[in-house]
Amino acid sequence: MDTTKRRRLAERPDIILDAANVVLRERGARGLTIDAVAAAAGLSKGGVLHHFASKDALVAALVARKLTALRTGIAECEASQPPGPASLPRAMVEHFEKTYCDDDEFSRALLVASIENPDALADYRSFVAERLARLSEVEGGRGPGAVVFFALLGLAMGRTLGFHQLPPEDVEPMMAALGRVARGTTPDGTG
């Protein structure tokens, strides 16, 4: 097999996941079928099934991909924070501020698709457990970081489920307040 063919074959899972993103955005969770993804990717159904043995496997891969991006984004934000117990909560607030308006329909459709296969959310549950364990470790128990984390989850899930569509000017003061909680300061800026 030549190098070009190997490279294209290695890129195929990403091409399939990109196509699945398009299908989710355009057709919603009900429209996410192997046939629809194959058509969007320009592949045969067998070509998709070669990489993802079922729709459940495809959904699990989409969740894993989204979580990888989330972990990476938080880690990048954390790297820019001053070291200390508040660096992770501050990083979560910073990342949330950057991404709050992103990818609404995809998240909603992915959540609905995951309901068909609750195991697809196992990685997400692991992510939540990891964050809580890390926050507990750096704070010496459940503290302000856990409050910030659950507030961010609530905002994200409320948006994903369509409970609210807050404009940036409404989100900014909330993020400032959560930033103060993350830093352990009071509303007037004192400790």
Written description of the protein model:
By secondary structure, the chain is an all-alpha fold. It has two domains: 1-53, Arc Repressor Mutant, subunit A (Orthogonal Bundle); 62-183. It is 74% helix and 0% strand. The chain is built from nine helices and no strands. It has helices at residues 3-27, 34-41, 45-51, 55-79, 87-99, 104-116, 122-139, 144-160, 168-183. The longest helix has 25 residues, at 3-27. The protein is elongated and about 55 Å long. 23% of the residues are buried. Mean pLDDT is 83; it is low at 186-191.
Write the layout of secondary structure elements.
Layout lengths: L2 H25 L6 H8 L3 H7 L3 H25 L7 H13 L4 H13 L5 H18 L4 H17 L7 H16 L8
Helix pairs in contact: 1-2, 2-3, 4-5, 4-6, 5-8, 5-9, 7-8, 8-9
The structural domain count equals: 2
Percent of residues in helices comes to over 70%
Strand content: under 5%
* SSE ordering: HHHHHHHHH
In round numbers, the mean pLDDT is 83
Task: Tell me the span between the first and last alpha carbons.
Answer: 63 Å
Q: What overall form do the CA principal axes indicate? A: elongated
Q: Point out poorly predicted stretches.
A: 186-191
Total number of strands: 0
Derived from helix and strand composition plus strand pairing, the structural class reads mainly alpha
Global Rg = 19 Å
Number of distinct helices:
9
Largest sheet, strands/sense/barrel = none
